[in-house]
Amino acid sequence: MITDLAPAFRPIDADLSVWRHDRADETLFYAPGYVAVVDAGCVPEFAHALETSALTRWPALDALREHAAAQDTWRDLVARPFAPVCLTLYLNNECNLHCRYCFSDPGPQRASRLALPVVRSAAEIVATHCRAQNRPLTVVFHGGGEPLLDAAYAGAVLETVEAAAAAHGLGLFRYIATNGVMSPALAAWMAAHFDLIGLSCDGPPGIQGMQRPLRDGRNSAPYVEQTAQIVHASGTPLHVRVTVTAESAPHQDAIAAYVCQQLRPQEIHVEPVYGVGRARDEVQAQADAFVTGWLRGQAVARQHGIPWRTSGSRPGEIHGPYCQVYRDVLHLVPPGTATACLTTTTGEQARARSLAIGEPGAAGTLHLDTAHIEALRHALRREAPDCAGCFNRFHCVRDCPERCALDDLALAHGFRCAINRTLAASAIHDAADSLRAQYPDEAVCGGEVHF
Ligand code: SF4
Ligand code: SF4
């Protein structure tokens, strides 16, 4: 079974964030984001030096020690106060598609949308933090639904954020996640007004039509292809988001070929369906089937020189679950509630799960509940007992979003844990193999691990 790859990484010491895996004639030492490949003959000396902090002749060992400070980075991340530098906006709860798995379950009618005064107030809060940190402001248009259904309203929201950034003398990075089903004129407007387009496409028309049909049942693929062409013509960077279901998991090589050839993005982000919202009863792929398919897709994408990524485990980054309160993101959902969680798409949902962290006052001024934010940050940092010794623990979303970190952590890990650790282990082996090919005569070599 391919998912048996991961358990072979074992911690070398309870106090060190370093794990080892013995291969035929060499050992891999792994600290979050970095792997050292050590010939069998040098392993005792290398391991001893690692445990005793002795000076050595190997630069890879110093780099490994630096990456082993992940524990400190994680502590800093959870200890520092919430200081958002990104504003994420779920503009509405309306959509022109009827994807079978939508995490937000939007309807055909606009239930509610963000009010401009609260967008202005939230942008002001984020801009203040950006200025203090000397960073540009990032704004993300997302749904809750399709963010560009009402182009005039979306334009007004964008102008509101642009004005806040300009008032503080900040640069602005504008990202939009879209289903791409729109007129050519609107696609051209989008390409001209955003810095990066994230286009959802689940693969060739047969898969796209099955998983992401229009509300009237027709296939959305022709619109997505047309929008991608318009974005290309404008020169705006394009990423594609692929959602994988149990049915499409074995076809990820064909999905990769189609996306690379037809849509030609700079990156492809591949995620197993989020089993929440309308997809709460969706049966996931078997972990082995997802991973096998994912690796085949990655091989095809590599032939085209296009990164094939997934977000569950990102070895180049120290991270936990997707909680916005840990990602420096101020996230608004209609009609103007600030939420801690990307799976809540209305203020009502956020309040029902105690994940609302701010509400607008009478004049639309957003009031953040700092005491609740701190309480949530404290509660969400909990870790399941099984994670404590895991080589993946500093870069894993755990079982989020299907199982929240606020839920019972004693429950056995499931699908996401299996794919996160297997794909991370695969990335480590990949990095080790290419280091070995690059430095065949070195007894010890090392390098960073990325997807
Ligand atoms: S959830 Fe992540 S950190 Fe925890 S055991 Fe699974 S792979 Fe490891
Ligand atoms: S851990 Fe819970 S609050 Fe955090 S993103 Fe996941 S589901 Fe949302």
Describe the structure.
With 451 residues, this protein is an alpha/beta fold. The protein folds into two domains: 2-74 and 414-448, no CATH class; 82-370, Alpha-Beta Barrel (TIM Barrel). It has helices at 43-52, 59-67, 70-79, 116-133, 151-167, 184-193, 205-211, 221-234, 252-263, 287-303, 347-352, 370-380, 415-438; strands at 10-11, 19-22, 26-31, 34-39, 86-90, 137-142, 172-178, 196-200, 238-244, 267-272, 308-309, 329-333, 337-339, 356-360, 366-368, 444-448. The strands form two sheets. An eleven-stranded mixed sheet has the order 11-10-9-8-7-6-5-12-13-14-15. A five-stranded antiparallel sheet has the order 1-2-3-4-16, with helices on both faces. Strand 5 (86-90), helix 4 and strand 6 (137-142) form a beta-alpha-beta unit. The longest helix is centred in the last third of the chain and has 24 residues, at 415-438. The radius of gyration is 23 Å and the shape is globular. The two termini are 21 Å apart. One iron/sulfur cluster binds next to loops.
